[in-house]
Amino acid sequence: MSPIPSLQKVQVRLSDAVRHWFQALQSYGSPDDFRVHVNACITTLRQVTFILQSNKQEIPFYSSWYEGEEGWQTKFRNDTVMRWAVDARNTIEKRGDLETHSRLRVTVVAGWLDTPGKEIEVCPFVSTEQLLSEIDTSSIHPEISEYGLLRAERLWVATSLPEHELLDALSHVVGQLTLMVLEGFALAGQALNEITLHAPDGTSVTGAKLCSLEGNFPKMRVTQPDRTSWLKLSTGELLSFEREAKGFDDKLFEEAQGRYGNISSVLQKPIVDTPSPSASQLEREGIRWFNLARHVFEKDGFHGPLLIIQDQFGAAEVIQTPIVDRSEKYGVFRIIALEVARSGADRVFLSTKCGQLISAKTNRLSMQNTDSTVAKRLRSTRQTPMVNSSI
């Protein structure tokens, strides 16, 4: 079956909605701009199904795929957030803006397990950083203040959907519509692993990978890092856990090959001549990354903590995680857990500067339980001791 033009039109309109979503995220701290982009996102999402319904004669499998008892229309009607999106669009176009309010969720972070937080209504015109700096922390126990952090998560919530952060709700709508369109492409005979989709933030994923991410680009799956500020209790300073992407072009690759030799052969080299027949796939993959870290150490005399996040498609991301003290470690590993949830990775490898490799097979993380999963995953890690005591 050849590509169906109406499905491609729907995908274009869905891409417009994704662009509005990212613009809303970027303007999260600016109420007026945030309102404009949220309204645009909601109305554009509703146009996706309008275009689909008006072009149904071009889609030979439309009835069973969209309107049938097990079709997408039925799924949407049984989904609380999808029904809310329809009502929200009607509100915006017929009665005015959505009624929204801003909350601040404040939590003391002083260990691997979270303590209960406190949620307060805040003025939407005051920045999260300013609100955080004005919180009285004098009653916090000195032992907690020494290594603890104060985490403040800003939330925009629609009064008509109080249990969901607004952008998380819209990302769910985007995800469901994306899964619908991708299924349509598949029914039309297109291979999802050959379809590449691009997000406004520069992220590119295949249709197959997007399906595994519930229809959302990585940054749309978990928005908490972009809405959160951190205060170091021992000093009162605001912390910024930022990620800086490092491109790896042909020139850098040649420089790395010149310094470290054939990286591929290093990754394939076993630590021992004959790996244990009972070694799991996770252990074998861990050995590959351990070889690389050891190779760098032998060449340079050091390496910082290296984190490798890998997904079921074999794609891997290497992250350097410089950590100054225990309190920053609590914050960094929570950010790492959220990045795992964003990327859809199902395994994590951490090579420490002490020469240990920590491997963890992760379960898919939901947005609701990501933080509490950090400690569980760390407790379930398996440590591979140093093979060469000089490392």
Show the helix and strand layout.
Blueprint: H1 5-26, H2 31-54, H3 62-67, H4 72-77, H5 80-94, E1 100-109, E2 118-121, H6 128-133, H7 142-147, E3 149-158, H8 166-187, E4 196-198, E5 204-206, H9 207-212, H10 218-221, E6 228-232, E7 238-239, H11 250-260, H12 263-268, H13 281-300, E8 306-310, E9 316-320, H14 326-343, E10 347-351, E11 357-361, H15 370-379, E12 382-384
Antiparallel strand pairs: 1-2, 1-3, 3-6, 4-5, 6-7, 8-9, 8-10, 10-11, 11-12
Helix pairs in contact: 1-2, 1-8, 2-5, 2-8, 14-15
Notes on the structure:
By secondary structure, this protein is an alpha+beta fold. The chain has a domain at 245-384. It is built from 15 helices and twelve strands. The strands form three sheets. The protein has a five-stranded antiparallel β-sheet with strand order 2-1-3-6-7. Strands 9-8-10-11-12 form a five-stranded antiparallel β-sheet, covered by helices on one side. A two-stranded antiparallel ribbon has the order 4-5. A hairpin with an 8-residue loop joins strand 1 and strand 2. Helix 1 packs antiparallel against helix 2 (31-54), helix 2 crosses helix 5 (80-94) and helix 2 (31-54) runs parallel beside helix 8. It is flat. It starts with a helix and ends in a 7-residue tail after the last strand.
Instruction: Please provide the count of β strands.
Output: 12
N- to C-terminal separation? 58 Å
The share of residues in helices is 40-55%
Major sheet: arrangement of strands: 2-1-3-6-7
What ranges have pLDDT less than 50 throughout 5 or more consecutive residues? 363-391
Strand content bin = 15-25%
Averaging pLDDT over every residue, what do you get? 80
User: Main sheet?
Assistant: 5 strands, antiparallel
Element string (H = helix, E = strand): HHHHHEEHHEHEEHHEEHHHEEHEEHE
Morphology call = flat
Structural class: alpha+beta
What is the number of helical segments per DSSP (H or I, 4+ residues)? 15
- Output the radius of gyration: 24 Å
